[in-house]
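Might I ask for a little of your time on a matter of protein folding? The record follows directly beneath this note:
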Amino acid sequence: MNPVKTGLLGLGTVGGGTATVLHRNATEIARRAGRGITVEVAATLDLERGKELGLDSLKLTADATEVVNDPAIDIVVELIGGYDFAKELVMTAIENGKHVVTANKALIALHGNEIFAKAQEKGVIVAFEAAVAGGIPIIKAVREGLSANQIEWIAGIINGTGNFILTEMREKGRSFDDVLAEAQQLGYAEADPTFDIEGIDAAHKLSILSSVAFGIPLQFEKTYTEGITKITPQDVEYADELGYTIKHLGITRRTEKGIEQRVHPTMIPKSRLIANVNGVMNAVLVHGDAVGPTLYYGAGAGDEPTASAVVADLVDVVRAMTSDPSNRVPHLAFQPDQLADTPVLGMDDITSAYYLRVCAVDQPGVLAAITKIMGESRISIEAFIQKEPAANADTVDIILLTQRVNEGDMNHAIAQIEALDVTCSNVTRIRVEALN
């Protein structure tokens, strides 16, 4: 049987890794797919890139539109990233009847609904395993391996840069700015790290996971996003004292009111396996009603780990190319006419436990005033720490750990605490999840 011909859009880190893995493991991949998979052409602005990869015979072009319009290409692999041009290329490929594999989480999160609708119309497949958590096959696990379950919630460390920063802050007591600078030097963070440290990258991935888990349309714009820039070494220390670790989590949960879809710093018990995922590694905890909790761990980025997911998608597409489109695994796990209109909740409607750090004047009655506000707001305090003031200081940190409460009620209580004459700055709030 003739090999399946692919065209790569982009030959950078992931594109280069994909070309390398396809070449090195060609025999094994053909055994698994039932046919060979070859790279017919790759689009790149660096026309010497093939030599750098040791793939001298690889045909290169600087014009990506040549690839998506080439009648010989069966599958287009989009690895250039970004929004507009990538979308244009993918939509053209689909219009031309080509299957698509992509690692572009931003493209899927923002334009996936439109892309999948066009793919359904044209009877082609759009595969995107590599768009979430790099080499971890989390999309396949949720969409296929756990298809017998009602997914109850997912919590994931899905951005390696943020996890590296928080790990260094915890293990070495370093400041956020200091660790960020090192992450940039090591290549873990971009020169503009906004997408990583403000949670936007994680929100792209979470919106995809949420849709696959709960059978709802992609709704990135409704994902609550909060970064890690305000986490201090003191917060990391206090969390440890209370038996918790701070992680930057993406959390999506099915509730009676709707779907929670949120990315923010989260305190989790140190005893949880996911609390011990360190450095640039990723991990996703999925809780199904039948299977219970399952944990998926691995490299969330990098050339060959991500290429592993890209090539796995290629194998799946090749296996399914000749099948009836109505019998293929749906893009978002549920048949298109079975997607639900379950609402994504605003943050005022979610419930969580909370860590609060209050800077207050060191004088009698302060703690009583704060606890009075909490009591009037029907917020139960599970633990508190009142630190000794520093030498010659007239302020002190008061640390409160609450039981689960509605976020709207917590916002009201925090506003009242900040309005007290004895508080000296905004209250620091970190959500707490038991993940049990």
Notes: Residues 105-122 form the longest helix (18 residues). The radius of gyration is 24 Å.
